[in-house]
Amino acid sequence: MDPITFSIIRHRLFRVVDEAVITLKHVSGSAITNEGHDLMVSLYRADGSLLMGGVGFLHHLTSAAEACKAIIRRFKGQINEGDVYLLNDPYTAALHTSDIYLVAPIHHEGRLVAWSACFVHVYDIGAMNPGGFSPDSQDIYTEGISSPGLKLVDRGELRQDVLDTLLNMVRNPEMVTLDIRSMIACNNVAADRMLALIRKYGYPTVDEACATLIEQSEKLLRARLAELPDGQWQSRQYMDVKGETAKVCLTMTKKDDTLTFDFTGSSPQSRYALNCTRWASLGGLFAPLFPLLCYDITWNEGVIRPITMIAPEGSIVNCTRPAPVSVATVGAIQSVNNAACATIGKMLAASEKYRKEATTVWHANHFAIFMFGRNQRGGQSIGILTETFAGAGGARTFADGVDVGGEIPNPISRMANVETMESIFPLRYLFRRRLTDSGGPGRYRGGLGMEIAITPHDAPDGGLHYVVSGKGAKYSMSEGLGGGYPGAPNRYVWVHNDETGERNADPSFALSLEDMPGRTEDISWGVFPLMGKDALYVAWNGGGGFGDPLERDPEQVQVDVESRFVTREAARSVYGVVTDAGGIVDLAATKRLRAEMRGARMERRAAE
Known about the structure:
By secondary structure, the chain is of the alpha+beta class. It has helices at residues 3-27, 31-34, 60-74, 160-167, 173-201, 203-227, 278-293, 301-304, 332-349, 418-424, 554-562, 568-573, 587-607; strands spanning 39-45, 50-52, 84-87, 99-108, 111-121, 150-154, 157-158, 231-241, 244-255, 258-262, 307-310, 368-374, 380-384, 427-434, 450-456, 463-469, 491-496, 519-523, 526-531, 535-539.
């Protein structure tokens, strides 16, 4: 078709999604949505296939496509203009029950021409724990309301009986109502803007542009894959829950213009809620693929066509009902994401043309700390510590990773400021800063993660409770590349400082974990109280490093030490860099130490 008209329509489609995202954020009252950007908005073809993937958590682009298709199958012959459908069943399409999809058909002159879809992590879903993350759930039935599809709006009229039924099962119906209404408003704006586009250019022209856009994306991705070397690359991710280790194994095969992601060898599904379903795994592998291989290609069905996934049924990456999945988004899904990021990075690094596009694994141990209890105003507060979205950038083949650089699966993720969190919850931040020695060592260092500490403040009940879930704190997960080391593992510490403690004192002015009065207890999974003068300390991983740490410029290591990004001990033991009492590099001593360290490596290798 006419290239100018095609380009205009393409950019208008982007604008449709952008305006819908703005609407969603403005109507929502939840910090996880409008501060953390835990959301997604996209457009789909009449058959439910992805037309225009929007920003937000990219895991949901393919899952929402399946949600549209599930609604088409379930409501065949009953899909009307002005309808809105709700779906959040993980075994149908969603990632976990807390992520509610609202999908809406778009009709033009009585004909179904497209779908819009969006999601937010709703304020509450009626699970056994407030907020939806339920580490103690033994099955899907204790993880809250779960629907394979219901009609929430019928021909433009809200079905109040359906909404009331949902609200009857959640802890804060007012906030959940706001979440749902924000998604309805989002879909309304998407439909209005889409129809305005069709009225201006005519449906045949817009439809041709949409089909052309999908064909273009497929052609561009296949061409890029054809330029990359054929081969196989592997990655493993390990998760620890209460001393039990589960693994996600990935072999990625690139042949001609196709990619196959094979998760054979992954652990059987777990009794714990870190499992994920097949659709969730598909979303997990596409989350890094979209930005890493398709950064200049429109994310749509054309990108999906060259990709094949193999996920054995009954495994931790393709669990069967009724296995619990409430922690999937920070559990198995995130591990799938990490493994895909690692193998794609290895493939790119093997290409002379695309070497500079390679990256190590970013914020691998995404954590979720949900807090709940009465706030300083006497009302109920449920929500997540948005620091989980702050992330840490992985190293590149030519530069260090970005400190606290977000995460690949959500290009617009961010954390709320301290004042926002302290206004929502009855707590006080003791400190929030970059974490020394957290970035994966390498010729280029991984970006740093962070550390925070919080304590109750002005809490009517003396404090509140929190949920710790994720992949544990035992394993490093931000995999390095080309000899680079992984980022440091997460750490969660409960600082007990009750009235009977020998070191009872006010922790309000503690500047580090070591400064905090009380007894420390490492935790990683479960529901815990944050009461009285107790404190919670959280440290999260940095990005993976690239290249041999012994090849890092000694002067750059000195800068890292001066900036407190790397300790003098790590500079010596990991990077082989010797500094004097003033922190200045001793180049001669550094050269000798690095030679000794390389020699020791060779001896170990010979012994093996």
